[in-house]
Each structure stands twice: as structure tokens, then as C-alpha cells.
Amino acid sequence: MSTFDKLVQKWCASLKCSTDFDSWGQLVEASDEYKRLLKNINTSIETVDCSESKKKILLKIAACLEIRSANLNSVNSSEDIKLEDLRKLISVLQSLTSVSVKDVPQSVAAQPLLAILTIPFYSRHLKSSTSNTTSRNEDMADKESYHSLLPKLKATTGQNLIMVRLQKIGLKDATELIDPYFTISCKDATAVDLCQRQNTPVASGRVENYLTFGFDIHIQVPFENMPKGSAIFFELFHYKQKRRATSLKCFSFMELDELKAGPCVIELYKKPTDFRKKKLNLLTAKPLYLHLVLTISKEM
């Protein structure tokens, strides 16, 4: 059995495990397994010994995994890859010697991948898969067009609005990270998005063990509309040159009882992001934190 055949066998078993979790309603576990398989495929695709047509199929399968994982964490995803679509991919993987792109679920295969994927990971990775000479300038253009900070929410009289000033984050390897940026989301207790996610521009500076940002994030849901168990999440992503991919570094969050006006520091946790706050592991024992300043204003 060739190395590629062994990889395909491993991917099939992983996808079967992922879809089983998905069908049982264990959405956090399913999302984690989809992301793990996605990472495995994208890590292997540059070195695996197979044809370019098969690599294109693998990229489309990776796209399906990413979108399904996003679907599990949000009711507002722009693409809807269903569980039955993911199950079909098991046979697609098993038949890579004869499969064609048309066998990939229609919602992905019918249009260019770059048109349906909205995170930097893919815009960079797909370009590097088709050409090893992709310029850094193109990556920078993708990054700059991706940041999506939104203006202050228009709320009704009496509602309290939250603005977070993202000041800095302490990391022992702060000077080594390439193009670090934050994704900010607001989730309820079941990990469903309460409002649109936002992405900051990359860090504005580096001072010793700190990445500095200085950006204001207007949370797009009034405090009163955040149900019990809700939290604001901060995920730090960075670009890995060796893998030509964007990777999660760590995450942090603030629960409702922590949302008070003024400066604050919050702990950092190891990836993957656990939006249900069940399995949390500190990133480091060192006194390094995410530094924020909260402003809560009432609409008059």
C-alpha cells in the first residue's frame, strides 16, 4: 500500500469519526474533528505523491470541512454544507483513483473556491497550492481586504452598547508571529453566534513580549440581548510561512459578569477554541494576558 493510500485510509476513518459525532449532536467534538482532518489534509497536500487533479479534489474536500465546521458554530454561515454531504465525501476519498471534481458536493464544486471561502487560511493556501511563487504582496492584499471591523451598532433607546478597545496581548513568542490578527465573536451558551464576527487588521506593533493593536471593536448586539451563558470570544490567528496557512494561536473570552466598563486583563487558553467553555487549558503559566478596555454606553 502506497503512502498516499495509507493517508486516504486514515482520512476516511477520521471523516467517519467526525460525521458520527455530528450525527450524535456532539457539535463541539465534531467541529474539532473536522478542523483536525482539515489541518491534516492541508499539511500533507504539498508533499503527498498524487496528481494535481487529486490535489484539487482534496482542496475542495478541505473546503467542505471548513464550511461544515463553521456551520456547527453559527446559524448565519453563508454556505450550508449538510451532514449528508460530508458523508458522501467518505466514498469520494475512497475512490480517488477514479473520482472527479463533479463528485464533490454541488455547493462547493459549482463555483470557484475563492469565491465561497471567507477566511485568510484558504485565500493563501489555495494560491500556494497552484503556484509556489505566490508573492508576499498578494498575501498582504488578501489580509488587508479581509479585516472587517464594524461601526457602532444602531440600538434602541435605553439599550447598553459594548465597545472593546483591544490594546495588547502578551506572548513569549510575540516577535516571531507573522501577520497576527484577532477574530472577535459573541456566542450564546450553545456556541451559536449572537451577531456578526469581526476581524481586526494585523497587529500595529511589537514591544518585547507584547503584540499591540489599539483597535476598537463595537459588539454588534446590545448587552440586554445577550442571554445567560453568553460570552465574547477573542481568537488570535497568525500566518505560518512553512505551511503557507493561517493558524489559531490561542483564544480568550469574557463572560457576562465580566463585562464592566474600564480596563481589564483576561487569561489566554490553548487551541482549539472551546466556545462552550468546557475544556479549558491555560496557554502558559507566565503572567501574560490579553489587555482590554471596555466602554459601555447607554443609547439615549
Structural overview:
This protein has about 300 residues and is an alpha+beta fold. The protein has 2 domains: about 120 residues, Four Helix Bundle (Hemerythrin (Met), subunit A) (Up-down Bundle), CATH 1.20.120.360; about 150 residues, Immunoglobulin-like, CATH 2.60.40.150. About 35% of the residues lie in helices and about 25% in strands. The chain is built from 8 helices and 9 strands. The strands form 2 sheets. A 5-stranded antiparallel β-sheet has the order 4-5-1-9-8, with no helix packed on it. It has a 4-stranded antiparallel β-sheet with strand order 3-2-6-7. Helix 1 runs antiparallel to helix 2, helix 1 runs antiparallel to helix 4 and helix 2 packs antiparallel against helix 3. The radius of gyration is 20 Å and the shape is globular. The chain starts with a helix and ends with a strand.
Helices and strands, in N-to-C order? Answer: HHHHHHHHEEEEEEEEE
Mean pLDDT: 80
Largest sheet features:
5 strands, antiparallel
CATH architecture of the largest domain: Sandwich
Structural class: alpha+beta
Oligomeric assembly: single chain
The CATH superfamily of the largest domain is known as C2 domain
CATH class of the largest domain: Mainly Beta
What coarse outline follows from CA principal-axis ratios? globular
Q: Number of helical runs?
A: 8
Unreliable segments of 5+ consecutive residues:
99-103, 106-146
Strand order of the largest sheet: 4-5-1-9-8
Total count of domains: 2
Overall radius of gyration: 20 Å
Q: How much β-strand is present in the residues?
A: 15-25%
Pfam family, one: Aida_C2
Keywords: Developmental protein
Domain C2 Aida-type: 150-297
Protein name: C2 Aida-type domain-containing protein
